[in-house]
Design goal:
heterodimer; A: about 450 residues; alpha/beta; D-Maltodextrin-Binding Protein, domain 2; 2 domains; three-stranded antiparallel sheet; 18 helices; about 45% helix; B: about 300 residues; mainly alpha; MetI-like fold; two-stranded antiparallel sheet; about 70% helix
């Protein structure tokens, strides 16, 4: 072999090896997880010497103060009994948790959000809880019905809700007063007026103070805005698409108009300037007049000792439709037992403890969340939640809704996000976007 | 079997076992999975060519191919040119040259994730280094990582900054060019540009071929930086990992999303094999063309 061929051959070999990398990186590992379908089949306690506690591993997405709050509950549980030792671990990457569960070396119990339930049920990530509930005669009537239902898919209950999350309106009292408002906006029209009057623009068009709740992003805002205006995307039981209604359209038009007036580039620049719930967050630096966010914002403001004079109010309703006041979209954080859990009984035991009134109230008040059980809501600990006297009454509104589950929920959300993004960036008008969405979203319900 | 053969195999067994268990077997497995519907939880079921059909029909796959080709076509040559220019500069006889060489090489040993985090700050449209500098010149810089037009140029910029690996190989090859060639060219009155075009480039052309192919493969499989930038947004993790208007949805990112977000291992495996074919074909074509522009000196 001459030198030329030799060099070529060795180069070719290197190339083949490198390309092989991508192929080997993406083949799954089939380690034959059949999953333990029935709770009694978990062999956790068998073979353990008497007196030794069995381990339960709990992974959670929270970090920081919220993670510490859960660790407190875990410590309380470990001290309360001598059968199990719960080991908590903060894993803020949901992909990692899913892959670990698939590989059979994930947690026994972990958390997520209710909208993943259809996907996790179909993919076989989460274990149905019905047998455990029936075995122990566990009473689920304490849960807020809508929140409990968010764990159900195909007549099986896969998760229990921790909280009832919905956006409320935060407003900066000083910025509103400077613009001549003594009251927060109550209707869509008032909201837009306040937004226009409180937005302050620099000479080059960049935004100094944002009056509209576009921060942290329009994607974060949209569902709250539309549901606040009284929209419902689907009929009950996800039978029909009801997305195309005047409330959804008003929400789309309002964001489109604001972005047209102040410029997408300027809004993006402002969104990039600060980090959500961080001391650089524009609402916390006094540079955002109106913000739609969850009650946790109050807890963050207090925990970080931020000096901002704010008020809390229900989301504005669609002008001329006061009967829809107090509306909003409710979702929940959930806990579910992994299908590949090696200690289902231990996970369930901890779950029952976590959802009992005192621990749940303690956990939720530390996080600044509204608990999903009536008994926890009534606990004295909830009075310690920051701004609880303003936030708790808002939970009673009959106009709070949740999106009913259906099999293709994740595809639905993905498409909705993609199409709306084009409209937020002014690449499509609200009318064009609506006609595309109406056709395509209906496909996912079939 | 001869004793010598056995001894040889035994000595190479750590590699062989590792290669078979962690490379050959997974490659074989991915080929099998590419013909199945498999989500890691339920056992795979045979679906024939459905996954390959999906690859060619799915809109997002085509979008990701377009994004990936953009990087292959622009980022590869730019990083080669930057690497070569840097090598050329670091090959000059200047006081403290070894310090410069170290400085320019450092970025390429920083892990991709750390690089991405640093650049997220550098490219911040309001407080970032670049836009602040542009601001002093009276120019309002773009929204680098948030504007679909600017996301990929941002990545190319990041790639050029990390061209140290390419630079160091070029530097070694530049020092390998026989001095006698330059000396005789100087006697014939050749200038700097002439010497570069007629002596330097042909002399290092085998290295250019090597770097070109490595660069193409790197950008065909482009993942870490894009994944970081697209999934870390100001309002928390983003599950679509696609960036503004899907401008950062590269082939390998979509492959990852299919595999580990949506658990469609069949789709992901089929995508991997299609990428393998595309990369192989492009590599083959470049090899074919290399007869015309690569010169092997020496013998």
């Amino acid at each position: 072999m001459n030198a030329k061929q030799g060099r070529k051959a060795s180069l070719l070999l290197v190339v083949v090896m490198m390309v092989a990398g991508v192929l080997s990186a993406c083949s799954g590992s089939d380690n034959g997880n059949k999953g333990s379908a029935s709770p009694s089949s978990s062999a956790s306690e068998s073979g353990k010497p008497a007196g030794e506690k069995s381990k339960v591993s709990v992974w959670y997405l929270w970090g920081g103060a919220e993670g510490e709050a859960l660790e407190q509950i875990i410590q309380d549980f470990n001290a309360s009994q001598d059968k199990y030792t719960v080991e908590g671990l903060s894993v803020p990457d949901e992909q990692k948790i899913k892959v670990a569960i698939a590989g059979g070396n994930g947690p026994d119990l972990t958390d997520s959000f209710d909208w993943v339930v259809p996907q996790y049920a179909q993919q076989g990530i989460a274990l149905p809880l019905d047998d455990l509930i029936a075995r122990d005669g566990y009473d689920v009537s304490d849960f807020i019905p809508a929140a409990l239902e968010s764990g159900r898919f195909d007549d099986k209950l896969y998760s229990l809700p921790l909280n009832a999350n919905f956006s409320i309106m935060y407003y900066n009292k000083k910025l509103l007063a400077d613009a001549g408002y003594s009251e927060p906006p109550k209707t869509s029209k008032e909201l837009y007026d306040v937004a226009l009057k409180t937005t302050k623009v620099n000479g080059d068009g960049s935004i100094e103070v944002i009056g509209f709740p576009s921060y942290p992003s329009e994607a974060y805002l949209f569902n709250a805005l539309a549901h606040g205006f009284g929209s419902a995307y689907l009929s009950e039981g996800a039978k029909e698409l009801t997305f195309n209604n005047e409330s959804t359209k008003a929400a789309m038009q309002m964001i489109y108009d604001y972005n047209t007036q102040f410029g997408v580039d300027n809004i993006r620049q402002l969104q990039a300037a600060g980090k959500w719930l961080d001391p650089t967050d524009p609402f916390l630096t006094g540079k955002q007049a109106i913000r739609f966010d969850g009650p946790w914002l109050s807890a963050h403001i207090k925990n970080m000792n931020i000096d901002v004079d704010y008020g809390i109010a229900p989301l504005p309703y669609l002008d001329g439709k006061p009967e829809t006041a107090g509306g909003g979209l409710v979702s929940s954080s959930i806990f579910y037992i992994a299908k590949t859990s090696k200690n289902v009984d231990g996970a369930w035991e901890f779950m029952k403890y976590l959802y009992s009134p005192e621990p749940l109230a303690k956990f939720m008040s530390l996080m600044g969340n509204i608990p999903a059980t009536k008994s926890a809501m009534a606990q004295p600990a909830m009075k310690d939640m920051v701004d609880s006297e303003q936030i708790m009454p808002l939970t009673e509104s009959p106009n709070l809704k949740s999106i009913p589950h259906f099999a293709k929920r994740s595809d639905f959300d993905k498409l909705l996000g993609e199409e709306l993004e084009l409209m937020f960036n002014l690449k499509k008008t609200p009318d064009e976007t609506m006609s595309v969405l109406e056709g395509k979203l209906a496909e996912f319900l079939k | 079997m001869k004793r010598a053969t056995l001894t040889g195999l035994l000595f190479s067994s750590p590699f062989l076992i590792g290669f078979i268990a962690f490379t050959l077997y997974p490659i074989g497995a991915s080929l099998v999975y590419s013909f199945t519907d498999f989500n890691m939880f339920k056992s795979p079921s045979w679906v024939g060519l459905d996954n390959y059909r999906w690859v060619f029909q799915e809109k997002d796959v085509w979008k990701s191919i377009a994004n990936t080709l953009y990087m292959v076509l622009f980022a590869t040559p730019i990083s080669l040119i930057v690497g070569l220019l840097l090598a050329q500069m670091l090959n000059m006889k200047v006081r403290g040259q070894s310090i410069y060489r170290t400085l320019y090489y450092i970025p390429s040993i920083v892990p991709a994730i750390a690089t991405s985090l640093v650049w997220m700050w550098v490219l911040n449209p309001k407080s970032g280094l670049i836009n602040t500098a542009l601001g002093y010149l009276g120019i309002r810089g773009p929204n680098w990582l948030l504007d679909p037009v600017w996301t990929k140029p941002s990545l190319i910029l990041m790639g050029a900054w990390g061209a140290g690996g390419i630079m160091i190989i070029f530097l070694a090859s530049l020092q390998d060019v026989p001095r006698s060639l330059y000396e005789s060219a100087e006697i014939d009155g050749a200038g700097k540009v002439r010497k570069f075009l007629s002596i330097t480039l042909p002399s290092i052309s085998p290295i250019i071929l090597f770097q070109l192919i490595m660069g193409l493969i790197t950008y065909f499989q482009y993942f870490a930086q894009a994944f970081m930038l697209a999934s870390m947004t100001n309002s928390g993790a983003n599950q679509t990992m696609a960036g503004p208007e899907k401008s950062l949805l590269f082939y390998a990112v979509l492959l990852y999303r299919e595999a580990f977000v949506d658990f469609r291992m069949g789709h992901a495996s089929a995508m991997a094999w299609v990428l393998f074919l595309i990369t192989s074909i492009v590599t083959y074509l470049i090899f074919r063309s290399s007869n015309r522009w690569v010169t092997y000196g020496g013998d």
